[in-house]
Amino acid sequence: MSFWFWHGLKKGVRSTHYPRKFESAAGVSPGRPVATEFDSATEAVLAAANCPVDAIVARGSAAEVKLERCIYCQHCHYGNPHLLEWNSDYEWTMAALGPGKYQPLPGAYHRSLHVMVVDAGDCGACLHEVKQLNNPLYNMHRLGIFLTATPRFADVLLVVGPVSENMRVPLLKTYEAMPTPKRILAVGACAINGGVFGRAFMSAGGAASVLPVDLLVPGDPPPPLAILHALLAVTGRKNPVAQMASLEGNS
Amino acid sequence: MPAMGASPLMPFQRIELDGVAAAVQEQFGSGISLERGSRGVVLAIHLKEPNVLADLSKALFWDVGCSFGGLIVEEHADRWRLCYLFLARGSGWVEVVLEVPATVQAVPSISAGVHAADWFEREAEDLFGLRFEGHPRLGDFILHDQIWPEGVAPHRKPQRKSVNVHQMQFRRRPNPDWRPLLVVQDPGSFAMPVGPVYEGGIGESLHFMLETVGEDVLRAVPRLFYKFRAVEKIAEGQGVSDVLLLAERFAATSSFAHSLAFSLAVERICSLEVPKRATNLRVLLAELERLRHHAGAITGICESTALAVAASQAAIIEEELLRASCKFAGHRYLFGLNTPGGLRRDFVSRDFETLIGAVDRAIEDLRELEDRLHFTSSFLDRLEDVGVVDPSKARDLNLVGPVGRASGRGHDLRRECPYGGYDSYTFETPREAEGDGYARLRVLFQEAYASAGLIHQSIERMEPGPVVALCESFIPGAALGWAEAPIGAALHWIRLDESGIVERYRAITPSFNNWLGFHAAVEDFAFQDFPIILATFGLSATECDR
Fold first, then answer.
1. Residue range(s) occupied by CATH 3.40.50.12280 in chain A
2. Could you write out the DSSP letters of every residue in A14-25?
3. Is the Cβ of B229 closer than 8 Å to some Cβ of chain A?
């Protein structure tokens, strides 16, 4: 059995240096569409028409992006004329109530943050990406962030999925069982506004319709580092970015 | 029931269509009419009377040897159309069609003869309010009884066109006194609830009652559909491109396979010829997804046995494959690639070189990991003889995918019912006879290697050319599309109207099939084996729930 020990040592330390340094390995993030200037207003309107979920809004000759609605269908990335520019970052957590309206958890939580994840009808991708944070390449333990199995120990409720009807009660019970202060993260397009499922008879259309959400992590799914950025933002070690539109505008 | 014989690994036997036709004609001649099938189905058996249904299904499943595909219920203005799918190995899909007037509220159940149909009937009863006579346990399946009152049938078409189920206010009456059904009744026996939120939420939402008399758990039946989002109902009335987004996003860990099966169905409706290059690229992407999925499943198995170094190394392999997918196709879970008619984008040869490098590295690391796992006795002790499903049970419960193949089933749609150009590829479908956790692990490793081989083949035969054939018009009608998803056989069936609007969409998923058979693996086991059995099955709740 000692060969496992040797095997592990031989492979060396693989963890990212994020947040100390920006992680730039290829494929850590699918990137995101960004506001793009076109030659004419018509082209901007055509670019916006490419988007099946109205995440692109034409304003003059520019096409602006409401990232919280984006479901990563990539229709604005390739295949069509009038494509948007994409950048390859992953720091895109937003405050749910608008820029500057988020109060981070106090300093005592900086190196000891316990996260409770609730799968409220997720497609498996966001959940999978949260799970990846525990693998050696991201290793969120080194930052003092831990997953916890019980809501009694949890400081952060991380919701994935559009909140299916059958998960509404378990989700609320988990929330109520958590001590205060607590923060709620809506991770992924589905948890933000229902994503492709929207509001339907079995889908509440996002965590915000059930719980007071604090931070939004857009993406379908957001890559692990985007979720890590959000968890760092919970305690104020990183700042949420400015948002394109308010959450009320989505529903 | 035929005995499985001494060697459970029987060679691949083709079921000839003429043989199927002759067998049912002889036995049920007057009650049925045979027709050549179309759009994905090779033979349609129309029933004149409902009362031959149960015997006919039983004969097809047990005497002819077909596997069960699933049940598609469709509500028309004047009638119900029930379509039972059977797979004649090597020949194609056979459908048994029963049409009854809309006023009929009960049809015969086939579950007594074909056990694999059990959940399909329960699902149809919950969502359509159609009763299956002779079924021993209907109700409390998808619409959980602690929330939903009886008599709600949300998938039925509303009486008036203006009524939309998504805006309807159902009279939901949460019942705090609801308790799950327990079978073990013994002094001192108790049930340990697991879920729906457990493992710190990293486990998918589902619920088990582990019924125990102390050390040993006697049975554990999964209670699913916490994640039910009614994908099939949301799809109704939407255009094909919107439903494609849904098909891609209800089960992300096998999203490419599902979007592929959906696209194949649409292509059958529109009679689209997919360009050669797109066919090859689809094989490449589907196998890349399988490889990544299996690396993830292996990570899960190592984690469940608390073998930390192996779990970490397997997790690195998986993450590297996710990154390679993202670098290659722009998305870590391969979203946004499939479209009816081909693919939405093309790749250049430099992309292939980078990808093949990453795949080869992953395979090298997987082989190294497998070698070490084979020599870790504490690990093997936890897997061997754990969660055994013997071949006869696997056949009975119609297990599909790697789980079925570890129990001696040869069920692999890439070989038994080739689609998307797979018939021109050479690859192994690994099979094991033991049906325990270790057999399932070996199958996962072998399939991962086979997938890498297929990726190589597909790149070698890549020819320049277009990657998409455009769909000019929709011909109203229904078609079946299928794909071997990483977990097993995925079937997507749609009916379109003349303007390309989806009238009914049905997704039959491998996880649904295998969760039904999961209870066979969890009979009389020790508590600490439960996470291991779950991990070796590697099923997805979201794929089952839809």
1. 94-250
2. ----TTTS----
3. yes
State the Cα–Cα distance between residues B496 and B220, nearest whole angstrom. Answer: 40
| Residue B176 touches partner A, C-beta closer than 8 Å | no
B 337-356 near A (Cβ less than 8 A):
344-345
ipTM of the complex: 0.91
Q: How many helices (H) and strands (E) are present in chain A, helices listed first?
A: 6, 11
Q: Do B262 and B238 contact (CB within 8 A), yes or no?
A: no
Q: Where do the domains of chain B lie, and which CATH numbers do they carry? A: 17-167 (3.30.460.80), 190-223 (no CATH), 231-545 (1.10.645.10)
Q: Can you tell me the distance from the alpha carbon of A212 to that of B157, in angstroms, rounded to the nearest whole number?
A: 35
Give the nearest partner residue to A221 out of B242, B310, B333, using CB atoms: B333
pLDDT digits (tens, 9 = 90+) for B65-88: 888 999 999 988 888 999 999 998
CA distances from B113 to B21, B30, B59, B138, B517 (A): 20, 21, 9, 17, 15
* Tens digits of residue pLDDT in B491-509: 999 998 888 888 899 999 9
Domain A94-250 fold is Rossmann fold (3.40.50)
Whether B367 has its CB under 8 Å from any CB of chain A: the answer is no
- Compute how many other C-beta atoms are within 10 angstroms of the C-beta atom of residue B543: 31
Contacts with A77 from chain B: Cβ below 8 Å: 330, 336
